[in-house]
Backbone:
């Protein structure tokens, strides 16, 4: 879903997001106890920049099926809302249960970097890249951090 939504012109992406939103809303209405529909809707809302609504949807997913995937998603949304302390806590909890969750590692790295904890951010992004070399978000963040000089001069 994420890759399909992200590919194409802005107009096509918006059409796909609109369609995905309708489908996930219907699924959530027809099967309110199925967390996947709520989490899917949260992903679409987040991608559309509707972070408060995305948080409501992921909270519904968590209420029916607590787990690291939805906690990681919730942590990422909290980060996007600028609620870094809550995001850090949620992402750390998700990583305790699922230490190889790439999106949570990347988001927690972003939280740490924004708070000036560059060494921790580097460690998290390196961990994500070590788990999957093709995971572009962490690789880009790590490269940007290293190029910024925030860690001091390169060896």
Residues:
């Amino acid at each position: 879903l994420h890759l399909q939504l992200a590919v194409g012109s802005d107009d096509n992406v918006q059409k796909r997001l609109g369609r995905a939103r309708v489908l996930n809303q219907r699924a959530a209405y027809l099967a309110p106890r199925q967390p996947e529909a709520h989490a899917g809707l949260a992903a679409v809302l987040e991608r559309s920049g509707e972070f408060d609504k995305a948080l409501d949807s992921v909270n519904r997913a968590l209420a029916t099926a607590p787990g690291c995937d939805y906690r990681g998603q919730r942590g990422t949304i909290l980060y996007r809302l600028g609620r870094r302390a809550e995001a850090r806590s949620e992402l750390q909890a998700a990583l305790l249960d699922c230490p190889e969750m790439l999106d949570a590692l990347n988001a927690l790295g972003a939280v740490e970097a924004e708070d000036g904890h560059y060494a921790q951010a580097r460690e998290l992004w390196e961990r994500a890249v070590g788990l999957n070399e093709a995971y572009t978000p962490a690789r880009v963040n790590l490269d940007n951090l290293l190029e910024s000089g925030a860690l001091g001069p390169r060896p």
Notes: DSSP finds nine helices and no strands in the chain. Confidence is low (pLDDT under 50) at residues 1-5.
